[in-house]
């Protein structure tokens, strides 16, 4: 079930294990077509539900497109998989509040994704004017539909390592003031300052943290040479930020939960003169989170972060069933074939101290 190979079958009796309610991934890119079929089984092997990102080409902006995409995802699931895709709407300057409300009322989508236009992959059609988005955000506030925000400045003159901080100060804090009842997830938090902003606005604001931002810092991107498979947006920050993220997720605070941001791209598109942003962490997410909680002596808080906090924020019940992780070395596959190329797996082939037992 873990889709990882264990090094040895003779498990010593006293190996630490952790059993959790089945966890959810509140931020996942499953893509479409051949890529969707290749990566979907990995997310379904780890998570019971996932919030599916809408940044397809073209983006998912209508109720009909989201419903059709949900069907394609379900059709791509392996036999016997038990995975519920939770869909999102891609916000633009032209989003109609009535369409937002219709998709939410019909339970097609559970949230809307706000990409500042140009901030990241397939975001050029995103939102240019956050103030002008008020009628949409007011409607969402009224119906209790969360905004999932990619928090980075799109000003090209802002240093890339400062883009999250600048967005938070110049855009997010004013938005939270303008829309005092809006539920917001600040996605893939990467700085110590954003951690504090999430805490200061909880419980209506939450933050997700990826596995890779818990184990990489900005130096990792250049360790021994350029590491394109560690490049994602927001880019990993200094070590002090990584440590703050580890403290946040293991704090037990209800405002932090899983969002892996698993974002597969073909090897050819990553290992290129202008490589694209995104880390495929779908096959090694739980193993990596478990390792972090273990290293921080916080395995007793892992279930809250993985399986309870996100469901509570979204007003959903926790999942039935459990998953068990075990501190036995294993390793994931190096890459997932997709047509005539492949997707490199984050920490693939590396010895991983934690494995999924079933
Ligand atoms: O690194 C990233 N990749 N960050 C994003 O926000 C988007 C994602 C993608 O879709 O590839
Ligand atoms: Zn993402």
Write the layout of secondary structure elements.
Layout: E1 5-6, E2 17-21, E3 24-28, H1 33-46, E4 49-52, H2 63-76, E5 84-90, H3 97-105, E6 109-114, H4 134-143, E7 147-149, H5 163-178, E8 184-186, H6 192-201, E9 205-209, H7 211-215, H8 239-249, E10 256-258, H9 267-270, H10 285-295, H11 302-313, E11 322-326, E12 330-331, E13 335-338, E14 341-344, E15 355-356
Parallel strand pairs: 3-4, 4-5, 5-6, 6-7, 7-8, 8-9, 9-10
Antiparallel strand pairs: 1-12, 2-11, 11-15, 13-14
Helix pairs in contact: 3-4
What can you tell me about this protein's structure?
With 358 residues, the chain is an alpha/beta fold. It has a single domain, classed as Metal-dependent hydrolases (TIM Barrel), CATH 3.20.20. It is 32% helix and 17% strand. It is built from eleven helices and 15 strands. It has an eight-stranded parallel beta sheet with strand order 3-4-5-6-7-8-9-10. It has a three-stranded antiparallel beta sheet with strand order 2-11-15, with helices on one face. Helix 3 (97-105) runs parallel beside helix 4 (134-143). The model has no long low-confidence stretch (mean pLDDT 96). The structure holds (4S)-2,6-dioxohexahydropyrimidine-4-carboxylic acid (DOR) and zinc ion (ZN). (4S)-2,6-dioxohexahydropyrimidine-4-carboxylic acid binds at residues 29, 55, 120-121, 150, 232-233, 263, 277-278. The modification N6-carboxylysine is found at residue 113.
């Amino acid at each position: 079930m873990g889709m990882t190979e264990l090094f040895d079958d003779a498990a010593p009796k006293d190996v630490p294990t952790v059993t959790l309610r089945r966890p959810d991934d509140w931020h996942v890119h499953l893509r479409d077509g051949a890529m969707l079929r290749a990566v979907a089984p990995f997310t379904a092997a780890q998570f019971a539900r996932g919030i599916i990102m809408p940044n397809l080409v073209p983006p998912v902006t209508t109720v009909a497109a989201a419903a059709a995409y949900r069907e394609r995802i379900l059709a791509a699931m392996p036999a016997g998989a038990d995975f519920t895709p939770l869909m999102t709407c891609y916000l633009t300057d032209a989003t109609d509040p009535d369409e937002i409300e219709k998709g939410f009322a019909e339970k097609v989508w559970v949230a809307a994704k706000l990409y500042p236009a140009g901030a990241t992959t397939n975001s050029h059609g995103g939102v240019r004017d956050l103030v002008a988005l008020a009628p949409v955000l007011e409607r969402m506030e009224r119906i209790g539909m969360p905004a999932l925000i990619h928090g980075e400045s799109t000003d090209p003159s802002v240093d890339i390592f400062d883009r999250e901080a600048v967005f938070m100060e110049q855009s997010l804090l004013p938005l939270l003031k303008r829309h005092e009842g809006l539920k917001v997830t600040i996605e893939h938090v990467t700085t110590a300052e954003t951690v504090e902003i999430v805490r200061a606005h909880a419980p209506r604001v939450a933050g997700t943290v990826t596995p890779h931002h818990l184990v990489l810092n900005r130096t990792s991107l250049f360790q021994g040479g350029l590491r394109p498979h560690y490049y994602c947006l927001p880019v990993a920050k200094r070590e002090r930020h990584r440590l703050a993220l580890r403290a946040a997720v293991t704090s037990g605070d209800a405002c932090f939960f899983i969002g892996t941001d698993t974002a597969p791209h073909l090897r050819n598109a990553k290992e290129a003169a202008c490589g694209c942003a995104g880390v495929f962490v779908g096959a090694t997410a739980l193993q990596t989170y478990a390792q972090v909680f273990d290293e921080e002596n916080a395995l007793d808080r892992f279930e809250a972060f993985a399986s309870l906090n996100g469901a509570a924020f979204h007003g959903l019940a926790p999942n039935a069933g459990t998953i068990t992780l075990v501190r036995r070395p294993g390793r994931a596959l190096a890459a997932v074939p997709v047509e005539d190329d492949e997707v490199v797996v984050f920490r693939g082939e590396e010895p991983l101290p934690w494995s999924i037992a079933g």
